[in-house]
Design goal:
Length: about 200
């Protein structure tokens, strides 16, 4: 069985749990006591020397980084629907995974880290970046039901958690109706599972 070393309140862990649920893949969830520093303990560092969560273990294969784990699950269990293999299709999806790991991470994710977990960072910069990112998503989703193509892909799953958790970083989603509709479409997917703190406005 697939093992997921997990933190319930982590959006990056949640995106892995969410994709697995949508694909009907069972995960053996192994909680990591983040507040006690278990992610920096020697046993965990053998799995991921960066000391970051999530980590996915599939027999002898150990994968770190949520975006990489999404790619693995999509290719192994989801087929073309979730991650196409043609050059253009794959690139169109991967650009959003990069957005999730960079622009979204330094915006809504950082703001949430500051407010919810007391991380010391530039909160003014994080909230400014959040508004910039949300405006781009809002404009794009005004004319698209999904980030790419006419169906959900791991592009949507990668970006979804920290967008809908933006309120936990003091960033309002009240003025982003297209983002609300996109989030509602994701919540309506068969197998969808929620995460604590998610903004539920439709």
């Amino acid at each position: 069985m697939l093992k997921l070393f997990d933190l319930e309140l982590s959006g990056n862990c949640y995106k892995v749990r969410l994709l697995a649920a949508l694909l009907g893949v069972t995960l053996d969830i192994i909680p990591v006591d983040f507040m006690a520093g278990a992610h920096k303990a020697d046993a965990f560092l053998k799995l991921n020397p960066f000391g970051e969560i999530p980590v996915l273990q599939d027999d002898e294969l150990v994968l770190r980084d949520s975006q990489a784990i999404l790619v693995y699950l999509a290719r192994k269990h989801g087929g073309e629907a979730w991650l196409p293999t043609d050059a253009a299709g794959m690139a169109r999806v991967m650009q959003w995974l990069s957005t999730a790991a960079n622009d979204v991470a330094r915006g809504p994710n950082d703001a949430r880290l500051h407010d919810l977990f007391s991380y010391k960072l530039d909160i003014v910069k994080a909230r400014h970046q959040s508004q910039h990112v949300l405006a781009i998503f809002e404009t794009h989703l005004t004319s698209h039901n999904w980030l790419e193509f006419d169906r959900p892909t791991i592009a949507d799953i990668a970006c979804y958690p920290y967008i809908v958790l933006a309120e936990q970083g003091g960033v309002s989603l009240a003025n982003y109706p297209s983002i609300h509709r996109w989030a509602a479409r994701i919540r309506a997917l068969p197998g969808y599972i929620p995460m604590p703190g998610q903004y539920q406005a439709a």
